[in-house]
Amino acid sequence: MGNPVLVEVLRGNVVESRHRGAIAVFDADGGAVMSLGDIDRPVFPRSAVKSIQALPFVESGAADAYGFGNREIALACSSHSGEPEHAALAIAMLERAGLGADAFECGAHWSSQEHVLIEQARTLSEPTAAHNNCSGKHAGFLCTCAHLGHDPQGYVALGHPLQDAVKAAMEDVTGAAHKSDLCGTDGCSIPTYAVPLRALAQGFARMATGTGFAPERAKAARRIFAACMAEPFYVAGSGRSDTRMMEAGQGRIFTKTGAEGVFCAAIPEKGLGIALKCDDGATRAAEVMVAEVLAQLLKGDALAGTLHEMARPVLTNRRGFEVGGLRPSDVLDVQVG
Amino acid sequence: MGNPVLVEVLRGNVVESRHRGAIAVFDADGGAVMSLGDIDRPVFPRSAVKSIQALPFVESGAADAYGFGNREIALACSSHSGEPEHAALAIAMLERAGLGADAFECGAHWSSQEHVLIEQARTLSEPTAAHNNCSGKHAGFLCTCAHLGHDPQGYVALGHPLQDAVKAAMEDVTGAAHKSDLCGTDGCSIPTYAVPLRALAQGFARMATGTGFAPERAKAARRIFAACMAEPFYVAGSGRSDTRMMEAGQGRIFTKTGAEGVFCAAIPEKGLGIALKCDDGATRAAEVMVAEVLAQLLKGDALAGTLHEMARPVLTNRRGFEVGGLRPSDVLDVQVG
């Protein structure tokens, strides 16, 4: 048993490695469009749900109070690469709320993107919390605290009113109870709860359509998705998968990666939400899975061609010659007729 | 069906990700000590077999002709981190053979180790071929060509006499035919052939014991293993798994990682060879697998305690707090009584 192989890694004509996973595509009413593997097993969505976690930031009026536009809202939903524009905007957001960079409780790390890390190493002695890939989310959290009058100290901890609001939004959107025995700590120190892919997919369909939401939540969700799709660089960074897919999508697809091989996405015009996890946590495979699923769901559309190509990346050796590539397995390749 | 889950990744108390794989432990006569998963499916051994690929370098007399000791032989078997000592020694080896760094045909890349890359970014405009993790192997190849009077140009190509000698050594040691339809190109541009883990494990037992080898091959194999175990920094680098395991082993265990989740190892005193592959290609999981297998095979020994701990690495968040870890699955945990 176990989840099916969904992505193959080829070297020459030989399959060198295999990635298994599960994929759920649902509409907002809970109708399944695609279901592969075990979509009921709870998985940590990690950063793939930052757009949902940003609902209190918009709904509370914090984003408006500080005069934030698409870029700031996109950054609040981002796992950015720590490029100078990302770090600067995160700090600027805090300044609007009268806070300093010492308010961040996310910790610091060098960029995970080689080309960004090289520039960081040449210009910084050490990375700061503003360079943390989650600093935009944390800026949104801190601005919400400042606007609502919550003590910002300890805003990452279980039981802080900000985390209560985030958890309530997550439970409302996904419809899945967030159980304490399925709670872990995310890389940026906030609580993360394991929930089924089925619930995440339906939740993203609801984010895209507003189905079942109170009017102000539907409006906030629409605004958040629109902001991310309008400013995809601020959701990820140069060359990153989310940025490339949303740039290609020109406002028609929302995507967001999460650590350990998670991806959530939505196609608003079709009212569909997508949630997937690569069993082994590999980002390279999750990127193939989400691009392929989106390509299949948009079959016949010009955008599908770009996504189809993104689902088949080439591997080169150290001299730049093609030596292999990744591709969807037969199981994934034929899912949607 | 498929290979069993051998490594689990935990966040809090929840298994967040799972790595499958296959493991073979054999003696030099082909007796199985452990067999998990499909050990007959051909896998590319990648860099895990550099010690076998170094046999022509030692057997041809090249290593002696240029006055090389343990460090140079270890570097010829290495996937090093591109630290200054590694790059300098690779160039020094070429100089002894009257060759310049322009002879390298491996291509260049930045270090895959964050702390090394940061230093490289601060001291280099671009990495050179000497910084390629395979430059030591290529230095060994080039010195062998120079010593034997082969034209060094094209030494990486299929059909070059150097690659013929490497392939012949691989076939002799593993006993597995190297078939053209199972040939791919490695990251450093040389041919790589997929062979069963069973054959690789037995091959490493033979490297450790010399069983069935001609006397000069047995002597070369012993010398290569001894060199790697004596100079583990030159096989990998600061903080790397191979270096740490062989430092802890103090001459009692040989280990070598390969790309895409492969590991080969040997315990000479027990006459055992080990070969494994993580299905999805994850190094983090292959490192857990090899440490756990070695710990089990050395059960009751003080060294086993260190290896047992290396098989259970802790995961921390960006503030350094423990949030999870990796561990062998129950399937792997109970293999050797």
TrEMBL record, chains A, B:
Coiled coil: none annotated. One of its GO terms (molecular function) is asparaginase activity. This is Asparaginase. PANTHER family: L-ASPARAGINASE, PUTATIVE (AFU_ORTHOLOGUE AFUA_3G11890)-RELATED. Its EC number is 3.5.1.1. It holds the Pfam family Asparaginase_II. Keywords: Hydrolase. InterPro entries: Asparaginase_II.
